[in-house]
């Protein structure tokens, strides 16, 4: 299977030039979907730390780039929404988010903010011993109590500076009145307050109505595209880039 795809058919959310070259790196299989941005493309096209694939591999081989607190060595590893990317030698830390146009972009954040990550709970299961396991959308699994529900979001530590890895430090329930970022569809990148959740008894996706108070707008999306980011007020660190 090819490790490259034509730039002309690359996902629009990557926000890369389409005609400067014929091919671009393809995302490797991983916790995010196929639209996740390969870290090699991000380093070259967005950050400018490499000019070609060879330089990307050299940077990663030196373990100079951390993704969610762990060194990344695969240039095709996909970056998805709310992944934390750190480049310690430069003292730079970024959170991957959608901008207001629905493109994946990197928002620079303080070092302290890079020690935790916002995660959506995909589902939860009961494992051996009757313990509850939360299955997070970016591929990690953690043990917790039964307080948390699928579609909620939790903030977990990333094990930096001797900190315990994947300790829950905050919790944003999927509930009316709380704040979410939309991560799919035509409203991608919008941050708004949930007004109503309509659950259906069929295969039709549940619908969510949200209000963007800053724009005086209400809109509707499906439950799958809703990613909880705060309680009753937008978290100040989640600034949406233009």
Automatic annotation (TrEMBL):
Cellular component GO terms held in the UniProt record:
ribosome
> InterPro entries, per this entry?
KOW, Rib_uL2_dom2, Ribosomal_eS4, Ribosomal_eS4_central_region, Ribosomal_eS4_central_sf, Ribosomal_eS4_KOW, Ribosomal_eS4_N, S4_RNA-bd_sf
Q: Does the keyword Lipoprotein apply?
A: no
SUPFAM superfamilies referenced in this protein's UniProt entry, alphabetically: Alpha-L RNA-binding motif
Fetch the PROSITE patterns from UniProt: S4
Cite the KOW domain residue spans from the record: 173-200
Pfam families on file: Ribosomal_S4e, RS4NT
Keywords, sorted A to Z: Ribonucleoprotein, Ribosomal protein, RNA-binding, rRNA-binding
Matches recorded under PANTHER family: 30S/40S RIBOSOMAL PROTEIN S4, SMALL RIBOSOMAL SUBUNIT PROTEIN ES4
Return the similarity comment: Belongs to the eukaryotic ribosomal protein eS4 family.
List, alphabetically, the HAMAP family matched. Answer: Ribosomal_eS4
Name the record gives this protein: Small ribosomal subunit protein eS4
Query: What taxonomic ancestry is recorded?
Result: Archaea, Methanobacteriati, Methanobacteriota, Stenosarchaea group, Methanomicrobia
Q: Which gene encodes it?
A: rps4e
